[in-house]
Design goal:
The chain is mostly helical and about 500 residues long. About 70% of the residues lie in helices and about 0% in strands. The protein contains 32 helices and no strands.
Length: about 500
């Protein structure tokens, strides 16, 4: 026999359920608003008490309504939030199973692919998938078995909301962890996202790939080409993440292919260059962002759009030139971090490539970054006093020149000798005076000398028997130089933060 109190509670529940069953769209919206307001954050036992041990009866109505109406977007966002209250409640495993048994995962994934549904509703769908994925390995596998990785990745690429994209990254990160059966599938899905048109999606994918890479421990063959292509971006935040990933990848079996690819980007192929010149001459390929002033003096990474229709505007200065500049930057970062990588790059003719990039009058940023990677700061050219001063952090206004201090010529005196011969004394001295601003002082003849240089130090390196000792690399001021480089690396991290 049930008590009078229990009978009253059951009567209230039945009355509530009947009200829901008979309500129209507007009335149901009000019911959902009140439910969300009064039950947010409650535990499963508290929900059961609220519904007189019949909370599942309301949950099944919510899930049924979701499956019937999600295509029309009727109260969809509120429905998903209400279901989220059940699934995210403490001790809610029973609710989760009930939701999954009626095809909840498939419904959530299908919502992500429908164009008519609002972004906010899709965001709520992602949050529910997060709750499911965080419930354990079995549930992560269920999402992946439902072709979830593909649906989630496609949504990340198409989403217009950065906040929503960040929620998707959280979900993908969850699917990578504790999911050995499908972690490779997630990893491949992230790599497939790299060519997408959304800079935010590229940035988040690169960040998550770094996490996945450390968990999986092996690389996919396509990752080198995909990451190198990303270097053609105009978005510095994406370029930064790509270089950070490259720093990780050199520790894996793709190291040689990656270094070769970076050096190759320093000299765009004749075929691609001729295509570019044809487009420029014909007046096509005029896009919104570009370089001004006959291809020199303004970097395409920083140039603002021109309102003057008479000014020629080159396309994203063309991905191959952006790749060239980013490759020069990445090479400098890698060489600073690891001496063995610097030596490997020398054997791959990196000095020849950097000098050729310095002669690219069509893209000033390529010239500047290549020049910074080659800048000289040796004991012979700088003097003992300046080397010792390198242990003191530079003032804020001199930070950019400070970043040029680490370079191949500085590290390898033999390289300095060949660079001097390749440039000629006059150009070499101009280079020594201010490497960062060299591109603004070059005339067409000097640029041609750099672009057509024949510097090849591989034979000379082999005659020296391979690796250099630290004394040869840094001369008598190695400790000061190392302190300077330590400051440089710390400054690079702080500037990003």
């Amino acid at each position: 026999m049930t008590s009078i109190k229990e009978q009253a509670a059951i009567s209230r529940l039945l009355s509530f359920l009947q009200e829901w069953d008979n309500a129209g769209k507007v009335a149901r919206s009000h019911i959902l608003d009140k439910f969300i307001e009064t039950n947010r954050g409650k535990t499963a036992p508290e929900l059961e008490q609220e519904f007189s041990q019949g909370a599942s009866l309301f949950l099944v109505r919510l899930t049924t309504s979701l499956r019937i109406t999600y295509v029309t977007d009727s109260c969809l966002e509120k429905l998903l939030r209400s279901i989220g209250i059940f699934l995210s409640a403490v001790s809610s495993n029973r609710y989760l199973i009930e939701f999954l048994e009626v095809g909840g995962v498939l419904t959530l994934l299908e919502i992500l692919g429908l164009e008519k549904i609002k972004e906010e509703a899709k965001k709520e769908s992602i949050k529910l998938l997060q709750v499911i994925a965080n419930s354990g390995r079995t549930y992560k596998e269920l999402i992946c078995e439902s072709y979830g990785v593909r649906s989630i990745a496609e949504f990340l690429a198409k989403s217009k909301s950065e906040e929503t994209q960040e929620e998707v990254q959280v979900l993908l990160d969850s699917l990578v962890h504790g999911n050995p059966k499908y972690q490779n599938q997630v990893y491949k899905g992230l790599i497939a996202l790299l060519p997408c048109e959304s800079p935010k999606a590229q940035q988040l994918s690169l960040q998550t790939i770094r996490t996945a890479q450390s968990i999986i421990g092996t690389t996919h063959p396509s990752i080198v080409d995909c990451v190198l292509k990303v270097l053609g971006t105009m978005h510095l935040e994406v370029q930064y993440e790509a270089i950070e990933l490259i720093k990780d990848l050199v520790g894996y079996d793709v190291r040689q292919a990656l270094l070769k690819g970076l050096v190759a980007l320093l000299i765009p192929s004749v075929k691609e260059t001729s295509k570019l010149q044809a487009k420029i001459l014909s007046g096509r390929d005029l896009l919104r962002w570009g370089c001004l002033g006959q291809g020199r003096g303004v970097s395409c990474l920083t140039a603002a759009p021109s309102s003057d229709p008479s000014v020629l505007q080159l396309a994203p200065s063309l991905p191959m030139f952006l790749q060239q500049a980013a490759a020069a930057k990445a090479i400098g970062v890698l060489a600073r971090n690891d001496m063995s990588i610097a030596e490997e790059l020398l054997y791959l003719h990196v000095v020849h490539g950097l000098m050729a990039a310095m002669g690219n009058m069509d893209h000033s940023n390529s010239q500047r970054l290549a020049s910074l990677t080659l800048e000289v700061r040796t004991a012979a050219s700088e003097g003992a006093g300046r080397a010792a001063a390198a242990t003191v952090p530079p003032p804020p206004q001199s930070r950019r020149p400070a970043r040029a201090a680490q370079c191949f010529v500085q590290m390898f005196p033999l390289v300095a000798e060949h660079v001097r011969k390749g440039m000629g004394e006059e150009l070499y001295q101009l280079f020594l005076s201010n490497a960062e601003d060299l591109y603004m002082k070059l005339d067409s003849i000097q640029a041609d000398i750099l672009a057509a240089n024949k510097v090849n130090i591989t034979k000379a390196l082999r005659l020296h028997g391979g690796s250099y000792s630290m004394n040869i690399l840094y001369g008598s001021h190695d400790s000061a130089q190392m302190a300077y480089l330590t400051h440089f690396e710390k400054e690079d991290v702080e500037s990003k933060e």
